[in-house]
Design goal:
six-stranded antiparallel β-sheet, alpha+beta, 2 helices, 212 residues, single chain, rod-shaped, 2 domains
């Protein structure tokens, strides 16, 4: 009977030792600082975000640069404003892709040296005009001096230039021409457009502003 009692006591002791061992193991595992897990997760998230940005730039960057190199106007460029003038000097607000009259040309035009056109472009500090035929002129009514500019001239936004079907060295008037307008800001191209000019059989010059 005693032996059976002692054996039962040993089994109970062994069971207590097992419990203590489990408790010690649990305490040992809990001694690992849990706070180290959060910084690791944050670092992992930051690395993942940085990698995503690098991947996005690698994909979008070349497309963006290619778009800028294509010669397209910046998104904020609002185009040109063109004003022509009738024979009596009344301004004509020109609409894109619509014809407007310049008038009849005469070598003895007394009021102006050619057909006047004013061009402006918001944000531009320089507007370049190129003519495929005829001649570009500048004229200041204050000193009455007409200055031939050939087939190219630069304007400030809002200034008026004159186009003549005749060149100083030419013998006949051009019956058609194309005036190319290019707006710049700090030598960066903002946008371009053109004015197509044609004369009918009666010598009346008509023009059409084409937006690019």
């Amino acid at each position: 009977m005693k032996n059976e009692y002692a054996k039962a006591v040993e089994e109970i002791r062994a069971s207590d030792e097992l419990k203590q061992s489990i408790v010690r193991r649990a305490l040992s595992d809990s001694s690992v600082p849990r706070t180290s897990v959060a910084p690791f997760r944050r670092r992992t998230a930051m690395v993942a975000v940085a990698a995503a940005f690098v991947l996005l730039f690698a994909i979008v960057g070349p497309l963006w640069l290619r778009g800028n190199d294509s010669g397209r106007a910046p998104a904020w460029f609002d185009g040109f404003a063109v004003t022509a003038y009738a024979a009596d000097g009344a301004p004509i607000n020109v609409k894109p892709n619509a014809e407007f009259p310049l008038g009849r040309y005469s070598m003895f035009m007394s009021s102006v040296p050619g057909f006047p056109v004013a061009v402006s472009a918001e944000g531009a500090d320089r507007i370049e005009i190129r003519a495929s035929a005829g001649e570009l002129l500048s004229w200041s009514p204050s000193d009455s001096r007409v200055r031939g500019q050939g087939d190219r001239m630069d304007l400030k936004a809002g200034e008026t230039f004159y186009w003549s079907p005749l060149r100083e060295t030419g013998s006949s008037a051009a019956d058609s021409a194309e005036l190319e307008m290019t707006a710049y800001r700090q030598n960066e191209k903002l946008g371009s457009g053109r004015i197509e000019i044609k004369a009918d059989d009666g010598g009346l010059y008509m023009a059409k502003w084409i937006e690019d």
